[in-house]
Amino acid sequence: MVNIIWVLIFVVSILFAAINGTMDEVNKAVFTGAKEGVTICFGLISILVFWLGLMKIAEKAGLLDSLARVFRPFISKLFPEVPKDHPAMGYILSNMVANMFGLGNAATPMGIKAMEQLKKLNNNQDYASRSMITFLAINTSSITLIPTTVIAIRLNYDSVSPGEIVGTTILATLCSTVGAILIDRYFYYRRSRR
Amino acid sequence: MALINTISIWLIPMIICFILVYGTFKRVPTYESFVEGGKEGIKLSFSIIPYLVGMMVAITVFRASGALEYFIGLLKPVLQLIGVPGEIVPLALMRPLSGTGALSITSDLIATHGPDSFIGQLASTMQGSTDTTFYVLTVYFGAVGIRKMGDALKVGLLADIVGIIASIVIVTLVFG
């Protein structure tokens, strides 16, 4: 699936460039795109090192377990395949909490750790398990409570009320998260019927 | 507003402080554990590079070739029929593809139409309510070496559509 999409993006783009006469820009885009990819990864190093370091302390102190215990009933409904006291639970939860407060930078390392644990549960196989897809669905629809970046931009452009979009954002994010869970369930049942 | 601002400024330092104090209280070797976890972070960041470079090149080429604009042009008249402002279409298409791309479109929309205009409010809500699906997919699956994504991309993109439609409906109801 990802192979076909990836190739398709390139082929369609290059066809368009041939028709539009934008081959020159495409040439530049190859280099800027590659550079951007590496830049993002290097930007991630600082964040990943700091937050994974801190999370290691939280993990050893038993904080992740306590967090998982509090939300267990709710989360185990969402992830029926994850055992109740599995470390994946703690990471999934810290990722969700970080996302809710708009701490995107802190959310990524915990999301990756959660994926790592989910992969272990899946016997280290290289395909996405049911729980992994659910986790991604919730993550990409991002449950946000405080859209900090957007508020900052609005402040920058002298909004009369920079925070007025918090309410609409919470509602919209709620819709997309509920939608994501339902869509995820639909695809799961379609898969399991086969 | 001031409260939200204060919370978002105080939150991270408070979390750091809490974890460190709690860890010390529980007799965790804090600094050594931090270094141990940090080493994993370095390994992870490097392992993501090829995944992210592959995706970023595909998406920047897609934008530069004019293909994205062509699809925006196709969608605009259809959406305008049902009362969706055409200005928002580039953002709706860019949001799942590229985080920095979407952020620059949002800033641009807010700058040209004003943060308190309908388009400004809609752009703000859309930007805040979904995440960059391609990025999350690439980074999370790339980091742990998942090669077969299954339905993940389909589910992610369909959820984005739900989020975009929800933003339009809700902003229209609240501010429209």
Spell out the blueprint of helices and strands:
The complex is a heterodimer of chains A (194) and B (176).
Chain A: H1 2-20, H2 23-60, H3 63-78, H4 87-100, H5 104-121, H6 130-140, H7 148-156, H8 165-193
Chain B: H1 2-25, H2 30-64, H3 67-81, H4 89-94, H5 99-113, H6 118-129, H7 133-144, H8 152-175
Polypeptide structure, described:
The complex is a heterodimer of chains A (about 190) and B (about 180). Chain A is an all-alpha fold and about 190 residues long. Chain A has one domain (about 50-190). Chain A contains eight helices and no strands. In chain A, helix 1 runs antiparallel to helix 2 (about 25-60) and helix 5 (about 105-120) runs antiparallel to helix 6 (about 130-140). The longest helix of chain A is centred in the first third of the chain and has 38 residues, at about 25-60. With about 180 residues, chain B is mainly alpha-helical. Chain B has two domains: about 1-50, no CATH class; about 65-175, no CATH class. Chain B is about 80% helix and about 0% strand. Chain B is built from eight helices and no strands. Chain B has helices at about 1-25, 30-65, 65-80, 90-95, 100-115, 120-130, 135-145, 150-175. In chain B, helix 6 runs antiparallel to helix 8 (about 150-175). The two termini of chain B are about 20 Å apart. The model of chain B has no long low-confidence stretch (mean pLDDT about 90). At the A-B interface, helix 1, helix 2, helix 5, helix 6 and helix 7 of A face helix 1, helix 2, helix 5, helix 6 and helix 7 of B.
